[in-house]
Design a protein that fits this description.
The protein has 187 residues and is α+β, with helices and mostly antiparallel strands. It has a domain of 115 residues: Jelly Rolls. 49% of the residues lie in helices and 25% in strands. The strands form 2 sheets. A 4-stranded antiparallel sheet has the order 1-8-3-6. A 4-stranded antiparallel sheet has the order 2-7-4-5. Helix 4 crosses helix 5. The model has no long low-confidence stretch (mean pLDDT 90).
Length: 187
């Protein structure tokens, strides 16, 4: 069942046979997180990656006595402190379940096993490339678009984020204060 969810979410990038996803899920375990549960504290090394089956998670950075939301991830997407996972070094990023969450967890060791297969290696490369493009576009948008433009694009691309995620996280993700977000929303 979980292999079908993985397949459906990746088919837009690459239509791999369901058997590939079955070998992936065989190396995973289902885990649950409570709302606001810290999954990986800042200053520690990420040991796992997650595929969110239900719920939402965020990546945060402590800055000026406050956490800044760098990413919001909803179900049917992979999630982790990717920088720490790849470098095997501690990072200042903290990952948190921002909703009650059910996820598939795969350890760094099992990721290494998957990468040894041709399909596994290709899928991880494809995922990394798409993640890079999304983060690069987010940086460009922060520098070239107004907060209102970024909010309108978020509504268009991911209306469920606006409905489900706390305003403070959305504002932080957009790089604005909650007061500025309230003004934009009232327009």
């Amino acid at each position: 069942m979980n292999e079908l969810k993985l397949k459906q979410s990746f088919d837009k990038y690459f239509d791999a046979p369901v058997e590939v996803w079955k070998s992936f899920t065989d190396l995973c375990e289902e885990v649950k997180f409570k709302k606001n549960e810290v999954i990986k504290p800042n200053g520690q090394t990420e040991k796992n990656a997650y595929f969110i089956l239900e719920g939402a998670c965020g990546v945060f950075l402590w800055k000026e006595n406050n956490f800044v939301c760098l990413d919001i991830v909803l179900e049917n997407n992979f999630f982790s402190d990717h920088m720490s996972l790849i470098t095997e070094q501690p990072s200042p990023l903290e990952t948190v379940a921002i909703e009650k969450t059910l996820a598939l967890k795969i350890s760094a060791n099992n990721i290494a096993k998957l990468k040894k297969s041709p399909f596994g290696n290709f899928l991880f490369l494809l995922g990394a490339e798409n993640s890079f493009v999304e983060k690069q576009q987010q940086q460009i948008d922060l520098l070239t678009k107004t907060a209102e433009q970024r909010y309108m694009e978020l509504i268009q691309k991911s209306p469920e984020t606006i409905k489900r995620i706390a305003q403070k996280h959305i504002a932080s993700y957009l790089g604005i204060t909650t007061q500025s977000l309230s003004r934009i929303r009232s327009k």
